[in-house]
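Need the bound structure for UFG, inputs here:
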Amino acid sequence: MILVLGGAGYIGSHAVKELLDKGYYVLVIDNLSTGHRNSLDTRAVFVEGDVGDSALLERVFTQYKVEAVMHFAASCLVGESMSNPLKYYENNVINSFNVLKVMVKHNVKKIIFSSTCATYGLAENEFLNEDSPTSPINPYGRSKLIVEQMIHDCFKSYGLDYIILRYFNVAGADFSGRIGEHHNPETHLIPNVLLHLLGKSKHISIFGNDFNTADGTCIRDYIHVLDLVEAHILSLQEVLNTSPVGRVYNLGNNKGYSVKQIIEQCERITKKKAHVVYEKRREGDPPYLVASAKKVYEELEWIPKYSLEDMIRSAWQWHKSNPDGYDS
Ligand code: UFG
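Answer from helper R.:
Posting the output first, comments after.
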């Protein structure tokens, strides 16, 4: 059985669907704090609860034969981590410690961990590879980096096989239309622009146009959620079939788009005009984060299939059909 922590969230729910479609038995733990009951796949076993609850983890690991863990359960907003850092150290660091402890105790020694390019910090117009210095500029990035280091120590001392996946900016939705992105509040750029174009907000804010980039707005590397999930499946197969494995991979498209370019693309695809308002910088935002994902292409033969246009089109489809997300 594959244990998916945070399997009712945006990325977790897409991973659960793909695992089930591929024939894996899936067990989900989610506290539904940001995840949605309606996103749950009825083919998966669901345990409602918190990853920080050691007794619950103990029960689950005793009751089920867990082969590997995919750990998506985390708080993941850069801005929020600046105003409430302890939430990040608790949800991301302490809870992951609980997970690792129970895994080692029950001799479950395979993990795929969701990390982030926010572990790198400031980059100056260069592609980030896995050997680029890690010097996060926000508590979110720091919390993920601490967990990466804990996992690596468990690899060295207890033989825990791992693949850490450092996501760049994830967007898009499954083409089935059943699952998609729904955060409350929504803070991510692409869904925010699309929800604005659907008439859900009066304007779209651009946080800072005085960065040292071509048009002054932040540059990010966007990756379709389905490509990201494909990398998880390949990583899972690798840790299940090989040992020792202790690797870190970037997941991105090796291509940067500015905030302005994203808004323009959304306008072009939806044929609607956005009302843009410039605001001051959002604290903790690095100006430029673009991946070199060469290592995972070479080692796992992972090749992203989807373009930025595919991400925006699939997300638009989801938001149009579900203007209130899972509450629609
Ligand atoms: N932005 C706006 N207006 C908005 C929303 C965002 O201008 O309404 C800007 C942000 O300031 C930033 C860029 O768009 O410059 C991207 O912001 P997102 O909130 O979409 O994404 P982040 O890069 O801040 O963070 C996301 C995830 C993290 C992940 C990171 C990797 O939330 O978990 O991508 O870069 F680590």
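Comments: The first helix runs from residue 10 to 21. Residues 76-78, 116-118, 168-169, 187-189, 192, 204-207, 218, 220, 259, 282, 285, 289 surround UFG (CB under 6 Å).
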